[in-house]
Each structure stands twice: as structure tokens, then as C-alpha cells.
Amino acid sequence: MKRYMILGASRGLGHSFAHGLPKGGDEVILVSRTEPDMSSLPKEIHPQWIGADLSKIESIDALKKDVGDKPIDVLIYNAGIWETKRFEETSREDIAAICNVNFVSALYAVQQFIGNIKASKLKKIVLVGSTAGLENEGAKSVTYTATKFALRGMCHSLRENYREDGIGITVLNLGGMATDIAYTQGAQEALSQYKNTRIPVDDVINLVKCLISLSPASTIKEIDMPAQFDADS
Ligand SMILES: NC(=O)c1ccc[n+]([C@@H]2O[C@H](COP(=O)([O-])OP(=O)(O)OC[C@H]3O[C@@H](n4cnc5c(N)ncnc54)[C@H](OP(=O)(O)O)[C@@H]3O)[C@@H](O)[C@H]2O)c1
User: Fold this and answer.
1) Which amino acid residue places its CA nearest to atom 23 of ligand 1?
2) Would you say 227 and 199 are in contact if contact means Cβ atoms under 8 Å apart?
3) CA-CA to 98 of 20 to 30 Å: which in 33, 141, 149, 168?
4) C-alpha of residue 98 to centroid of ligand 1, in Å
5) Could you give the 3-state DSSP secondary structure of residue 31?
6) Looking at ligand 1, which atom is closest to the CA of residue 144?
7) CA of 217 to the centre of ligand 1 (A)
């Protein structure tokens, strides 16, 4: 039995992770502000939703109280928001929320749950980044880009600290995805709707399955996965 914790799991890629990763007997803790539809999850897995607003880092303390010391095999930090206006027009509140949701809560969640991860069998942390966080990528967002770049630094620095504990930390630098087409709808639906221009969530789920299946002797620090036709990375 594996236990997954997915932060940012009510819709999009996070919701699809909850459908595509756990197998019979596994447990999955879904974290988000909105309660996810759990009716479509495979019957043989054990889901639990915990409501939390990750723009407020105190919410991680409440989350830790709820989860306690249960081992967590795979922690996926997927929550992400982005600016909708030009940098000069983005409010201080919006900048703070993007920083907290995309990066500060990720850092704090790993700090709070590191004992749960150490106590597990698989010991994997997956950070959902973006190709926007790669050097010279050309993204016009400022705060989003900075937070996704920060996740890469977090991945490398955590590795230096937790190498001896056997914890595998990976940041996925992902390009344009069809996250509005759920895993349950199938990759073909995403390929047809977007004419092969956006990555189906199935591809990302397959990548994470591969990470989870590696032996404890291997670790993958970063994966850059632009969509084939993305012109910016
Ligand atoms: N879509 C793309 O093309 C693309 C490309 C590269 C990278 N990414 C990254 O992939 C990840 C998933 O993207 P997506 O398209 O699936 O996004 P999405 O559909 O907007 O889903 C984002 C998830 O994050 C959660 N979230 C947002 N704000 C939150 C908050 N304050 N507290 C708790 N949870 C919060 C949302 O839940 P609630 O709103 O219910 O709280 C939701 O479950 C993000 O990190 C994004 O940056 C996406």
C-alpha cells in the first residue's frame, strides 16, 4: 500500500494525478480549497480530501495536524496560480498569493511533512514546475516565472540536505498541457481537441509512474517537458 498526498487536487492535473497514480489498496490525500469530485476515482483506492488555502501558509499547520505522522510515500506539490495582468498592474496581494501558493507553501509543506516522507517506503517528492522557470524561456509572466524558477532551486537544495535519507526529489518543468481534459476522458480526446499542440495529462502521469518505479539507487532531479510545438522552450 502506498500513500499519496497531492496538494492542488480539485481539478486539472492534480485531480488527474489522483485518478491515474494510485492503485488498488493505495490511499490518496487530496488537498485544495474546493472539494474535488471523488465519485469518479477508482473504487479500490481510499481517498481523503482535506480543505486548505495554500495562499495562507498557516494552512499547512492544520494539514499536518490532520495527517499526523502517517507515512507519505509520494508527496506531489501541484498547486499553481498565475498572474492575469502585466507585472506593473499586478497587485501586491496577487503577487503574495502567487508566491505563497506556488512556492512558499511548497517549501513549508516539505518542511512539515519531511518526517512522514522519511517514514515511508518510497520517499518521493514531486514538484510541479513549468518551462516558464527555465533560463531564457521568454515567458512574459514575472511572479509566476520567479516561483517556478524557485521550485528548481528548492529541488536542488533539498537534495543536498536529504541525500542520505534516500529521498528522491524531482521538479517537472512542464510546457503547455491540456489540463482541462481529465485523465478519465483519455489522451486521445486531448490530442484531438488541441490538435497535438498541448500535452495530455496522461503523459505527465506516465512520467510520475516512471519516477515512482525507480529503484532507491536512482534519482531524477529535473525533467524538462515542453509540448512538442511550444516555441518558447
Ligand atoms: N496548464 C498548463 O498548461 C501548465 C503548464 C505548465 C505548468 N503547469 C503547472 O501545473 C500545475 C497544475 O496546473 P493546472 O492547469 O492543472 O491548474 P488548475 O486547473 O488551475 O488547478 C490548480 C489546482 O491548484 C489548486 N489551488 C489553486 N490555488 C490554491 C489555493 N490557494 N489553495 C489550495 N489549492 C489551490 C486548485 O484548487 P482550488 O482552486 O480548489 O483550491 C487546483 O486544484 C500548476 O502548478 C501549473 O503552474 C500548468
Assistant:
1) 8
2) yes
3) 168
4) 11
5) strand
6) 47
7) 31
Q: How confident is the prediction for the chain on average, in pLDDT?
A: 97
Cβ of 126 closer than 6 Å to ligand 1, yes or no, is no
Are 68 and 3 spatial neighbours (Cβ–Cβ below 8 Å)? no
Residue 170 DSSP SS3: strand
Judge: domain 3-225, CATH 3.40.50.150. no
Q: Per the structure block, which three cell numbers stand in for 28?
A: 490518496
Q: If we measure between CA atoms, which residue out of 207, 105, 83, 90 comes closest to residue 150?
A: 105
CA separation for the pair 47, 26 (Å, rounded): 9
Please tell me the chain's helix, strand, coil percentages from 3-state DSSP, rounded to the nearest 5.
Answer: 40, 20, 40
Q: How far is CA 135 from the centre of its chain?
A: 20
The whole-number pLDDT of residue 221 equals: 98
Each residue's pLDDT tens digit, 145-181: 999 999 999 999 999 999 999 999 999 999 999 999 9
Q: Is the pLDDT of residue 139 over 90?
A: no
**Residue 70 CA to ligand 1 centre (angstroms):** 25
Sign of CA dihedral 167, 221, 232, 97: positive
Rounded Cα distance between 60 and 113, Å, is: 9
Query: Domain map of the chain by residue range?
Result: 3-225
C-alpha cell at 37: 469530485
Residue keyed to cell 527555465 = 134
Spatial CB neighbours of 129, under 8 Å, sequence gap ≥ 6: 148, 151, 152, 171, 172, 173, 174
Q: DSSP 3-state assignment of 228?
A: coil
